[in-house]
Write a structure and sequence with these properties.
The chain is of the alpha/beta class. The protein has a single domain, classed as 3-Layer(aba) Sandwich (Rossmann fold), CATH 3.40.50. The chain is about 50% helix and about 15% strand. The protein has a five-stranded parallel sheet with strand order 3-2-1-4-5, sandwiched between helices. The longest helix has 28 residues.
């Protein structure tokens, strides 16, 4: 009985230590910039949908010449480029090198969709744009499917999680859920 209780306490402590490491790491992404120099003709920008400001950030990178194409991965079926532009309050035009991915409905789906897109356009470097709290899980998924590509993560502050998350139940719950998803993905790929 004592051994089982000791193991349970150790697991709980590990979970909390991991959770605090996770929260520290995700907030550090907000201030980090993608490192290294890429050749724009060999680079692309992939936005993982699901949070505010992600598409605008991807478009800004495209306009800065960070890549030759932009993929918006995980677009709802039937949604057009002009509808996305109107909804996001940004300027997107049909003649821009923007591709819409309609297949992905999960982060793993994003990784598969981005992989197929990168292969199609022979892109060696991918700027993956997602919310800061989503980077650990999306990193696991993207690197699992594209270990040979140079993937640089660009963090977006979508506004769902407050800086002082421990003071806000909603932010705490949001980060806890994201940490749990990250753990599941990590364990899944660790044993595969």
């Amino acid at each position: 009985m004592k051994i089982a209780l000791g193991c349970l306490i150790a697991l709980i402590l590990c979970w909390f230590v991991g959770f605090f490491w996770f929260t520290h790491a995700v907030f550090a992404y907000i201030h980090a910039q993608p490192q290294g120099v890429s050749v724009p003709s060999e680079s692309g920008i992939a936005v993982l949908t699901g949070g505010r400001n992600r598409i605008a950030q991807g478009l800004e990178l495209l306009e800065q010449g960070k890549g030759r194409r932009l993929l918006i991965s995980g677009v709802q079926s039937g949604v057009r480029l002009d509808e996305i532009a109107e909804n996001e309050g940004i300027h997107l035009y049909d003649d821009m090198p923007v591709d819409l991915g309609y297949e992905a409905t999960t982060t793993e789906g994003n990784a598969k969709e981005i992989m197929a897109w990168a292969e199609k356009y022979k892109l060696k470097t991918i700027y993956a744009v997602t919310s800061f709290y989503h980077i650990p899980r999306s990193r696991s998924e993207l690197l699992h499917y594209m270990p040979q590509r140079d993937i640089r993560f660009v963090a977006v502050n979508s506004g769902y999680v407050r800086k002082h998350w421990w003071r806000h139940l909603g932010s705490f719950k949001f980060l806890t859920a994201e940490y749990a998803k990250f753990l599941v993905v990590s364990v899944q790929y660790w044993f595969s």
